[in-house]
Amino acid sequence: MKKQLQKFVMALLLTSGVCSAQSQTSVVEDFKPSSVNQPGKEYPMVNSEGRVRTQISAPGANKVQLDIGAVKYDLVKDEKGVWTGESAPQDVGFHYYQLNIDGASVPDPGSLYFFGAGRWGSGIEIPSDDQDFFALKDVPHGELREVPYFSKTSNSVRRAYIYTPPGYDKNNSKRYPVLYLQHGMGENETGWGNQGHTNLIMDNLIAEGKAVPFIIVMENSGVNFERPRNPRPENTANADSTRRRPGGPGGFDFAGEFKKILLNDLIPYVEANYRVAGDMKNRAMAGLSMGGMQTRLITLANPDVFSQIGMFSGGSISMDDIKNTPDFKKNVKLLFISYGSRELENPRGGGFGGDPKVNTQSLKEAGMNTHFYVSPGTAHEWHSWRRSLYQFAQLVFKN
Amino acid sequence: MKKQLQKFVMALLLTSGVCSAQSQTSVVEDFKPSSVNQPGKEYPMVNSEGRVRTQISAPGANKVQLDIGAVKYDLVKDEKGVWTGESAPQDVGFHYYQLNIDGASVPDPGSLYFFGAGRWGSGIEIPSDDQDFFALKDVPHGELREVPYFSKTSNSVRRAYIYTPPGYDKNNSKRYPVLYLQHGMGENETGWGNQGHTNLIMDNLIAEGKAVPFIIVMENSGVNFERPRNPRPENTANADSTRRRPGGPGGFDFAGEFKKILLNDLIPYVEANYRVAGDMKNRAMAGLSMGGMQTRLITLANPDVFSQIGMFSGGSISMDDIKNTPDFKKNVKLLFISYGSRELENPRGGGFGGDPKVNTQSLKEAGMNTHFYVSPGTAHEWHSWRRSLYQFAQLVFKN
Known about the structure:
Two copies of one chain form a homodimer. With 399 residues, chain A is an alpha+beta fold. Chain A has helices at 2-25, 191-194, 198-207, 237-243, 257-273, 290-301, 319-322, 326-331, 341-345, 356-365, 382-395, and strands spanning 32-33, 45-46, 52-57, 64-68, 71-74, 76-77, 82-86, 93-101, 104-106, 113-116, 119-126, 143-151, 156-164, 178-182, 215-218, 283-288, 308-312, 334-340, 370-375. The first copy, chain A, folds into two domains: 2-127, Immunoglobulin-like, CATH 2.60.40.10; 132-393, 3-Layer(aba) Sandwich (Rossmann fold), CATH 3.40.50. In chain A, strands 12-13-15-14-16-17-18-19 form an eight-stranded mixed sheet, sandwiched between helices. In chain A, a hairpin with a 4-residue loop joins strand 12 (143-151) and strand 13. In chain A, helix 3 (198-207) packs parallel to helix 11. Chain A is globular, with a radius of gyration of 24 Å. At the A-B interface, strand 9, strand 11, strand 12, helix 3 and helix 4 of A face strand 9, strand 11, strand 12, helix 3 and helix 4 of B.
């Protein structure tokens, strides 16, 4: 009896061993270095299934894991102390991830770093069929400018990123429309440029004649969430004010201090220093997730400031919302609402302020120029928002 | 006898234990978060002695070390699995560093990341008495622009960072001098902006009237050493060409492909797209370390292109070097050579092409406008180069 049990357990172990080996061999072995690796780094890699494989030398470690999509995958150590392993298939597009080495959560030294989830950390790109729309091509390029400016509201020098379209400095008489474009919670003013490829999306659209050239202003709507990339020394007057972070890491500022910074400091700075048209007709606001919710609150409360509105995975606007603001219906010439398809599959998806498709349709029936876009096969992640910007940019400032 | 030996060894151990404890207690407990920490991160910290203390939770780890200045310092684990420890005092200024967790070299998740030593990794700032010259202040600010441009030499879209001084977009008739400013080996086009604070140094100097406003162009003189921050997908035409990295990580390109890129592609692009004066009198080249050596080779070989030259910790120019190039002596209106004082203490320091002070003095005696600057108390590191730029910028384009 005891021997039979032993035999059974042994068979079970062997079987599970075989299963494990099978799941290993079922991985398609066409891994290539990720397009967002550090220079010269082979790992992390991505295969045609969207699996992420990473590798790190840690001869003294007991346990190393790849932490992506809220799942931790064990890596396996070879005789040289090099750990390797891969994740389940991931959605196309951009994902944040990290390594876990004996309990320490650290960036993967193989990847480039991006600001999200409240920290600079690793990111990976799962190739998609449509990634050509943000590819770097030999077309006329705009510039992404790092712009320090003084904000009275925060009493500090803050940092905006400003995209100026190709030819901006060549034609000194032309004035441009301007879009204020906001990131999500736990992200900052670098997100739309780095993860979002805003400048490349716009350069390509403008080259194809699919979008009118406009300026894009990206600021930190988590307010003092992060200090600028250019750090300040401890002893400067600005260090204290920029260390105040009302939101804290992951800070969530709906329409308080950021609204004041935007309306009282940022828009006046941009209009005084850039060749923008400077009227409501030529002023747009859009954002993703928290940035979409901020767009919703700020544009509803200021229907004489913005005429073009985009909300990406950040709620929608209903007939109820605008019943007491007749100016909103009159002034707003574009309302664009979008979600990733996987968000809508989730019963909680798109729930901010009611069903986004129904809401958008009802405003359309009431005579407004509304658009509802669903990004196929993506969730609450950057590929949904890149595609949303790509769609939105083709509609904005054309009414 | 055996017992006596045991006693002696025990005493030795106790003594060394006491010594170790003393060296612990001799650490000055005035640590403050580093000025280049990620938002909300308490560690790493720096004290008034210039020691770096870091901390990381790694409950399962066997050994965690802080790796800075080519020395590894053991961290100590507490009962919760949190490791803490500090380095010996470091020189003032900026240093690259990393953590080592059970043999894995990884970035510290507490710090911001900088490109140096061939990788994006951790950096720390040891406060200096003179750091006010690169502090972020409420003065008029220039812009740091990320500029994609097409290079025929590399047959790819490359990335430059271009600093435009305050007011550049306001005065459409003014034309500016331009400085081509190069990084060191294992660094890239982001170094002068991030670690070097080029834009803040210039904004402050211009606000005080100590420098004439000029444009600064920063490109990757390791050639295709790094792909741009904005990554390209695998399937684009540019991906292949930008993956070619003749230098490889740590790539060293003296005067080959980079010289062609600079002279044939970058300078023409800048002169066609920016309001630069566009003559030799208003064209400068400077660089640090490898960038200084590139400056030396390129300016000596092209005495009709640059009239203002800066070499920071990157060699010097002797009478011998210019004996066959009479145009060099005639055309060059400023030659600025600098080193960190700790480099000159080293017998190998400043050795590229002879004693830099002697060389500079002999050119001065021959009638050239030369300057020799020594940064006090710093080595072959960024604080030497920030100070060098600060000095150079007050001299350049004034002859």
